[in-house]
């Protein structure tokens, strides 16, 4: 069995997610969005894909020095800056789209709520927030739940927050009443959801 650690966690979970990043790219194209922020951008893979497809008014923010070091390697990389995604210095109504991808389940409930509130503040009215994260319901296959559980067992605080997130109802419970859901896409035995919300 593979033992996950803080050091190999990002490499491991990076393997299957190209299809999700491509779906986000498709959504952004379809919505004709121009100005995009990736909150908790990690190593910047989504922004890199956007930049490769002609998007240049994009920015990411992340708190991790390690992730930002990876994100900013090489020439012509998208801008990823250090900062707290729950309390940014962006002006109100700055963006057409905010992306929050796998950046809720690993945080405390208070940080989850604050991150969503910040996304609502910085995205223009009637524009879009794309959220990707776990959600287990009657549509979720058991293989999906088991696979996610194996992935999420690594870092201690991360795993504890994940368990609380799932116990409280995942994405359904967290986002209920905050935004208008207009689209939903299913991945990994329906354990992962990519949702488009209107602000």
TrEMBL record:
Signal peptide: none annotated. Transmembrane segments: none annotated. The keyword Methyltransferase applies. GO terms for biological process: methylation. GO terms for molecular function: S-adenosylmethionine-dependent methyltransferase activity. It comes from the Bacteria. Residues 37-131 form the Methyltransferase type domain. The keyword Secreted does not apply. InterPro entries: Methyltransf_11 (IPR013216), SAM-dependent_MTases_sf (IPR029063). Keywords: Methyltransferase, Transferase. This is Methyltransferase type 11. It comes from Haliovirga abyssi.
């Amino acid at each position: 069995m593979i033992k996950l650690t803080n050091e190999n966690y990002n490499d491991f979970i990076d393997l299957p997610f190209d299809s999700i990043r491509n779906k986000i790219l498709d959504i952004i194209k379809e919505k004709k969005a121009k100005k995009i922020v990736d909150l908790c951008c990690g190593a910047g893979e989504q922004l890199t894909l956007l930049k490769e497809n002609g998007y240049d008014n994009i920015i990411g923010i992340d708190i991790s020095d390690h992730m930002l070091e990876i994100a900013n390697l090489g020439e012509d990389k998208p801008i990823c800056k250090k900062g707290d995604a729950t309390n940014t210095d962006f002006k109100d109504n700055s963006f057409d789209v905010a992306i929050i991808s796998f950046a809720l389940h690993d945080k405390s409930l208070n940080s989850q709520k604050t991150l969503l509130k910040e996304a609502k503040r910085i995205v223009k009215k009637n524009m879009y927030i794309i959220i990707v994260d776990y959600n287990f319901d009657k549509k979720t296959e058991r293989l999906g739940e088991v696979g996610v559980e194996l992935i999420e067992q690594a870092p201690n605080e991360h795993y504890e927050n994940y368990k609380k997130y799932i116990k409280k109802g995942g994405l359904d419970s967290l986002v209920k009443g905050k935004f208008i859901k207009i689209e939903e896409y299913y991945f990994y035995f329906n354990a992962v959801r990519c949702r488009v919300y209107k602000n």
